[in-house]
Amino acid sequence: MNRFLGPYQEQIYAIVRFVSGFLFAFHGAQKLFGLYWPADAPPMELNAMMMIGGVIELGGGILIAIGLLASWAAFLASGMMAVAYFMAHQPNGTWPIQNGGELAAIYSFLFLYLAAKGSGKWSVASAAGNPKLS
Predict the structure, then answer these.
(1) In angstroms, how far is the first alpha carbon of the chain from the final one?
(2) How wide is the angle at C-alpha 113 spanned by C-alphas 117 and 18, nearest 5°?
(3) CB neighbour class for 71 (10 Å; exposed up to 12, middle 13-18, buried from 19)
(4) What residue ranges do the domains of the chain occupy?
(5) How many CB atoms lie within 10 A of CB 87?
(6) Which of 3, 35, 79, 107 is the most buried (most CB within 10 A)?
(7) pTM of this structure
(8) pLDDT digits (tens, 9 = 90+) for 34-69
(9) How many CB atoms lie within 10 A of CB 88?
């Protein structure tokens, strides 16, 4: 069976990789630099765990978005999001819809897929012609 978007799967993957990395980086920017939208949101307490999370989110998100060492960055981000889900959300209820952990769960599985697939087209690794940078 022929999928109507099949011919564009590599381009769509590149867009998904870029957008998910870009949005993930914003979570790190919120934690590290106090950037909040809307502006009236209270500042987040930045303890050691939040600082490490912010660095992984900002740095990993940028690497995923541009497609440089994206497999490694996505693998680390996937694990971090799984830990975030089980530490911060799961104690509040069994199901993600119940405990507010939908975003952490979907990021964890999305980044696991990105870690398996690599940088793909439209990436720094592809432009450099070096698969080790994927």
Answers:
(1) 31
(2) 75
(3) buried
(4) 11-133
(5) 11
(6) 107
(7) 0.90
(8) 776 655 666 667 788 889 999 999 999 999 999 999
(9) 14
Cβ contacts of 45-51, under 8 Å, gap ≥ 24 = none
3 state SS of 106 = helix
Q: Comparing C-alpha atoms, which of 39, 23, 127 is closest to residue 77?
A: 23
Local structure of residue 4 (DSSP, 8 states): T
Q: Which residues contact 47 (CB under 8 A, 6 or more apart)?
A: none
CB atoms within 10 A of CB 52: 12
Inter-residue contact 123 to 68 (CB < 8 Å): yes
Q: By C-alpha distance, which of 62, 2, 12 is closest to 32?
A: 62
DSSP one-letter code for 2: -
Residue linked to tokens 């999305």: 110
Q: Which residue has the tokens 């998904």?
A: 16
